[in-house]
Amino acid sequence: MRTMSAEMPELPPLLTASGLTLSRGGRELFTGLDLDLRAGTALLVRGPNGAGKSSLLLALAEILRLDGGRIGWRDGDETPPSHLLAHATGLKASLTVGENLHFWRTLNGPTGLTVIAALDAVGLGGLEAVSAGHLSAGQGKRLALARLLVSRRLVWLLDEPTAALDASGQTLLGRLIADHLRGGGGAIIATHDEIAGLADAPTLTLEAA
Amino acid sequence: MSAFLAIIGRDLRLAARSGSEALTLVLFFVMVAAVVPFAIGPDPALLAKLAPGIVWIAAFLAMLLGLDRLFRDDDADGSLLLFRHAAIPLEAIVCGKMVAHWLLSALPLLIASPLLAILLAMDPDGWGRAALALLLGTPALTAFGVIGAAVTVSLKRGGLLAPVLILPLTLPVLIFGVAMAGTAEGSGAAALFLAAISLVSVAFCPFAAALALRVSGE
Fold this sequence. Notes:
The structure holds two protein chains of two kinds. By secondary structure, chain A is of the alpha/beta class. Chain A is 30% helix and 23% strand. Chain A has helices at 2-6, 53-60, 97-108, 115-121, 137-150, 167-182, and strands at residues 15-24, 27-37, 42-46, 68-73, 82-85, 155-159, 186-190, 203-205. Chain A has a five-stranded parallel β-sheet with strand order 5-6-7-3-8, sandwiched between helices. In chain A, strand 6 (155-159), helix 6 (167-182) and strand 7 form a beta-alpha-beta unit. Chain A is globular and about 50 Å long. Chain B is mainly alpha-helical. Chain B starts with a helix and ends with a helix. Chains A and B meet through strand 5 and helix 3 of A and helix 1 and helix 5 of B.
């Protein structure tokens, strides 16, 4: 399967961004940043705290307005073409695990796995009737990851995906990302940790502002 | 469409789980009307004359109660960020939340309004006009409330600011609402005005509120 993506170099990148410039609160985070993301690859974003890793992801998700530069998506007609996994997971404590996931599946389009299959895939099988408020932080993170599986989008923007995950959770994350990349997707991951299976992925290092 | 319904369903379900909110609203609504006879005296004729105004003031204040948590919880847990990144436009999501807010904060008042009619010595005709006026006018109150809540979502202590902000906008609703509920003659024109205000504000609100949410998220 890996050779398949190598055989299709003529496909334009999933995402091309050039000259990205962003400042927040009067502080310039980055200027003239270029990046592109090809199908089947991941890009790691590293840098010290406050270097603008999260802001870069929010800008790519078109939630923060850039001061300059442009972002081009290969599948620009799909709105939006990316999934965002941020620190705040958007889970409601008073809804059950299944209800939380079902809501996001309906809102973002049921284009991926079913709720049950996605919960099984992230190791929360059998917990769909449990209130999400009773989950641990790590289980909450797994549930947030399941949201990426129930609606298919080509690019995953992951902000510190390893936070709160245990050792098996880290392995699981690596496997989910690998599966996603094999399916022709891409991922941009802001992290301080090593992601399982992505040791040799290209890295973008942001300097401290 | 199913995504739009999912938004409404989620808010209704959250309200049902947290339990007492709709009940608090209704209790507040009934309480305001219950204390008025003690404050102005138990003269049935006077009460019946003031009743439309009292019903509207009670409804107005009760609907302001629930405004604060309209977007605040979603902002705190990150849902709002993901709403801006959903497959349907933020405007549609705001519209869904507006419908849910009406169902949770205005519909219970309508259902409780017969109780107010008894407390305020209104005749059945008067109650009918007041209930119809509430039905026509509360969508506008909801829409203005949603805009106010969206504008103040990023303010830490914005709880009281939203009601103050939307107060001038809601005064026409109050004026025509009381005029429609008050007397049989002239209530037709007031009803048309009330319906017009509701239609315009409900159509306009999702765009204004979504714009405010986008700006506050930056």
